[in-house]
């Protein structure tokens, strides 16, 4: 079969889509990945030579000014027409969308051509584009249970992540509490500016590995001045090894990063991005907290609260409790389960 997979804008949409595409390739199907021509998409596909890459010029809708929104709507019919031609030319049998505004014209083009549509939502809040696409979909796959939303034709399958994100059980050779800090590929200003000041004055024995993002290393190293047990890098290769090394993780609460951490039986101090659309990062974190695998700090509560939460985690050894709780969702099998479900429906 010929599969069209569409995702754009963020790694949280793109990487799960690539994982599912790779699983289809392993099952001897042809896959086209449709994106919006950005570097993140190309990097995600760098080691996937069998996945064909196509793109359309398209910008997001929500959070934009009136002029930008009008331009997107003006170009929508042309994008749908372009995608109809793409689907016909490549004899696409199935369309799978993962979020981002690109989802809408892809779903509408598939609807016009009566092609089966499948949706994967990574977060606990259904994104606007996926919400529209879910109306036409044959099935809606969920990375986590939705918050206050009973979506029809849905199944919680997890967020597709690499098999590398399984507990490795590395032996610990020191008595320090290991903390892995990550703000994602872009870094996170709030984490970079405040965590060094707090952690270097902590009385507990700790060792920190801090991923600060591109161009931020010099400043973050300066903030840790006088504290020896720290390693700061713009990026770390093999984040699964960092999570496994850690006792707990401090991060934002994007669905993919939380899924990776939970899959390795580690807990998180979660600091949701306060301006995330629909506050979805907070609700992602709330889900994890309710499952007993982390604790939330909201930026609006201030630095003293962040310091108190960190001291609570360390003094009460909450990270040891988190490590004993297994994720109820098998994210490393998500891609396989999605592909299996789609293939089963397509042959029934």
UniProtKB/TrEMBL annotation:
It is an enzyme of class 2 (transferase). Its EC number is 2.4.1.227. Residues 3-139 form the Glycosyltransferase family 28 N-terminal domain. The keyword Cell wall biogenesis/degradation applies. Pfam families: Glyco_tran_28_C (PF04101), Glyco_transf_28 (PF03033). It comes from the Bacteria. The chain crosses the membrane at residues 66-88, 94-113. UDP-N-acetyl-alpha-D-glucosamine binds at residues 10-12, 123, 162, 185, 281. Keywords: Cell cycle, Cell division, Cell membrane, Cell shape, Cell wall biogenesis/degradation, Glycosyltransferase, Membrane, Peptidoglycan synthesis, Transferase, Transmembrane, Transmembrane helix. It is a peripheral membrane protein. It is found in: Cell membrane. GO terms for cellular component: plasma membrane. It catalyses: di-trans,octa-cis-undecaprenyl diphospho-N-acetyl-alpha-D-muramoyl-L-alanyl-D-glutamyl-meso-2,6-diaminopimeloyl-D-alanyl-D-alanine + UDP-N-acetyl-alpha-D-glucosamine = di-trans,octa-cis-undecaprenyl diphospho-[N-acetyl-alpha-D-glucosaminyl-(1->4)]-N-acetyl-alpha-D-muramoyl-L-alanyl-D-glutamyl-meso-2,6-diaminopimeloyl-D-alanyl-D-alanine + UDP + H(+). SUPFAM superfamilies: UDP-Glycosyltransferase/glycogen phosphorylase. Pathway: Cell wall biogenesis; peptidoglycan biosynthesis. GO terms for biological process: carbohydrate metabolic process; cell division; cell wall organization; peptidoglycan biosynthetic process; regulation of cell shape. GO terms for molecular function: undecaprenyldiphospho-muramoylpentapeptide beta-N-acetylglucosaminyltransferase activity. Residues 179-329 form the Glycosyl transferase family 28 C-terminal domain. Its main location: membrane. Belongs to the glycosyltransferase 28 family. MurG subfamily. Cell wall formation. Catalyzes the transfer of a GlcNAc subunit on undecaprenyl-pyrophosphoryl-MurNAc-pentapeptide (lipid intermediate I) to form undecaprenyl-pyrophosphoryl-MurNAc-(pentapeptide)GlcNAc (lipid intermediate II). This is UDP-N-acetylglucosamine--N-acetylmuramyl-(pentapeptide) pyrophosphoryl-undecaprenol N-acetylglucosamine transferase. It comes from SAR86 cluster bacterium. The lineage of its organism: Bacteria, Pseudomonadati, Pseudomonadota, Gammaproteobacteria, SAR86 cluster.
């Amino acid at each position: 079969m010929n599969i069209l997979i569409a995702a754009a804008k963020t790694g949280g949409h793109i990487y799960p889509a690539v994982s599912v595409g790779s699983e289809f390739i392993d099952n001897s199907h042809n896959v086209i990945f449709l994106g919006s021509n950005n570097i993140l998409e190309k990097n995600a596909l760098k080691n996937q030579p069998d996945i064909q890459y196509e793109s359309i010029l398209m910008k997001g809708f929500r959070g934009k000014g009136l002029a930008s929104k009008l331009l997107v709507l003006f170009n929508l019919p042309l994008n749908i027409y372009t995608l109809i031609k793409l689907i016909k030319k490549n004899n696409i049998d199935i369309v799978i969308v993962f979020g981002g505004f690109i989802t809408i014209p892809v779903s509408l083009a598939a609807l016009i051509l009566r092609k089966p549509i499948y949706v994967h939502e990574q977060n606990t809040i259904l994104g606007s584009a996926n919400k529209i696409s879910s109306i036409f979909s044959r099935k809606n796959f969920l990375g986590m249970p939705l918050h206050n939303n009973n979506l029809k034709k849905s199944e919680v399958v997890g967020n597709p992540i690499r098999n590398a994100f399984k507990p490795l059980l590395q032996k610990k050779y020191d008595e320090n509490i290991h903390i892995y800090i990550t703000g994602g590929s872009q870094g996170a200003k709030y984490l970079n500016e405040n965590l060094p000041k707090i952690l270097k004055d902590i009385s507990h024995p700790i060792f920190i590995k801090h991923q600060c993002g591109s161009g931020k290393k010099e400043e973050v190293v300066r903030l840790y001045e006088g504290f020896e047990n720290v390693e700061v890098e713009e990026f770390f290769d093999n984040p699964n090894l960092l999570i496994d090394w850690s006792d707990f993780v401090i991060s934002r609460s994007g669905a993919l990063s939380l899924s990776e951490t939970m899959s390795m039986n580690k807990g998180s101090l979660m600091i949701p991005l306060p301006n995330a659309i629909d506050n979805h990062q907070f609700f992602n974190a709330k889900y994890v907290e309710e499952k007993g695998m982390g604790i939330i700090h909201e930026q609006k509560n201030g630095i003293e609260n962040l310091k108190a939460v960190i001291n609570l985690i360390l003094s009460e050894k909450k990270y040891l409790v988190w490590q004993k709780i297994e994720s109820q969702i098998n994210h490393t099998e998500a891609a396989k389960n999605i592909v299996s479900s789609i293939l089963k429906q397509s042959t029934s």
